[in-house]
Amino acid sequence: MANRKKRLGKTMMKAAFLGLLAFGAIPAGAQQAAPRDPVEPAKEKPQPKILERPAGVVARASIDEKSMRALIAKLVACGTRLTLSSWTDEKRGIGCGRDAIVARLNEIAKDSGGKLQVVVDKFESTSERTSGKPLPLENVYAILPGSDPTVAKTIFIVSGHFDSRPSNVMDPQADAPGADDDGSGVAVSVECARLLSKARASGPSMGVTLGGRGTYRATILFAAVSGEEQGLLGSTHLMDWVKQRGYTVGGMLDDDIVGADLAAGAPHRVRLFSGNGEIDDADSPSRELARAIEEIDGRRAIRMIFRVDRYGRGGDHYPFYKARLPAVRFTEPLEDYNHQHQTPRTENGIEYGDFEKYLNFTFMGDVARGNAEALRQLALAPAAPRSAKLTGAVTPDAKVSWSADDDPERAGFEILWRETTDPRWQVYDFAAAPGETVLKGVSTDNHFFAVRAVGKNGARSIAVPTEMERRPPPLPSPAKQ
Predict the structure, then answer these.
(1) Cβ atoms of residues 161 and 242 within 8 Å
(2) CA of residue 170 relative to chain centroid, distance
C-alpha cells in the first residue's frame, strides 16, 4: 500500500511538472542539461582551417551622413516625385529628383577617377497604376565594372526607388516629400557608390586588393529606380536591363524605408527580409544572400526576417526574387505609418507626412555601412559553385558533390551543414577542388548541407544548398477497375 502511494505521488508530481512546463512556468531547458542524441560523426569531426575574411572593412567613421542628408533634402524639395508627375520641370516632380541624383553621382564619379560610370536609362512601362497606358520612366545607375574576367559578368546591385507617393497614388498634384520612402534608400545606394568607388580608386587603403590590383572582381551597380509605387516598374526593367547585357545577378540589395528609427534605445538593427522560394528541404538563393549578409555584418547589425517582405506588402527586390535570383530587402526596425504613403496634413492633432525631421541619420548611416561592406566582400568573392548535390541515402555516410569553373584566385570550398531547425550554417569541412566529398558517419537525414567558394583573399560566395536525390517510398498500385 505504501509503495502504491509512493508511485501515485511520483505520477502526480510528474503530471504537475509537465503542466507547469506546458504553461511556461518552468523553462524548457530545465528538462535536461544537454541534448541526448547520437554524436555525428561518431568519430572525430574534421577541423578545417578557416580563412580570415578580407581585410580593410568599411569603417563606420567613413560614412558621410551630411551628404546623405543633403541629397534627401534636395529630393524632398522637389515637392512630389510621383512617377506620374513631371519629368521635365526642374523644380517640381520626379524629373527634379532624377536631376539631384544624377548630379550627386557625377560628383562621385569624378572623385573615383572616372571609374564609376553614370547611366540614365529611359524606357516605357504599363500597369494598372498608369491607367493602362505606356508611361515614360527613367532609372539612374552608377556602374563599377569588375576587372576579373572570371567573374566580371556577375553583378551585385544595391537599389532604392526615388519616386514617392501621397495618399492617392494617382494624384500627381499633391505633395509627397518621400524622405523615408524612399529618399533614405536612394541615399544609402548613392553613399555605397561613394564608398566603394573611392575604395576601388585607392585600393590598398581599404584592403581591397587582389593580385596586386586595388579592385573588385565582380561588377557592382548602384541604382535609383522609378515606378516602384506604380507597380515595381523600374526594378522589373532593371532586371531585364542587366540580363540583356549578359550579366548574372549575384545579389540584389533593396533598401526601402531605411531612414527612421524613433523607438527608445535607437539605433536598432535593420530588418533584412528574404523569401524561402519553392525548394523542398533547402533554401532559396534569396535566403542564402540574407545569411551571407548577416555573417558579414554581424548579428548586432542585422535582424534576419524569414519572410519575402512585410506582411501584405512588396518592394523592388520582388521581381528578382520571383525570377529565383538572390534578392533581399532592408527596412527599418519599426515603421510609423503616419509618415509613409500620406499626403502631408494635420488631423486630430496628428501630423501626417514623410518628412526629413522624422529620420535618424545615425541609423541610416549604419544601414549604409552594412550594405557597403556586404557588397565589398561579395564582389571580391569567387563565383558560387554549381550543381551541389547530396547523395548517400540509406548509407552511413553523406556524400556532397558540386562543380565549378577554374579560378586561380580561389582557395577552395567550404562544406556547410546545419540542423534542419537551425537558421545559420556552420563550416563542416574544407575541400581544395570541386568534386565529391564523403562526410563519414554523418546521416543524410538530420542536417541540411551546402557549399560555398572561398577566395584566397578570404571572401566567400553565397552558399549553394545541396539538392537531394528524389527517392519517394513505394506506394500501393492503383486498384484495377
Answers:
(1) no
(2) 30
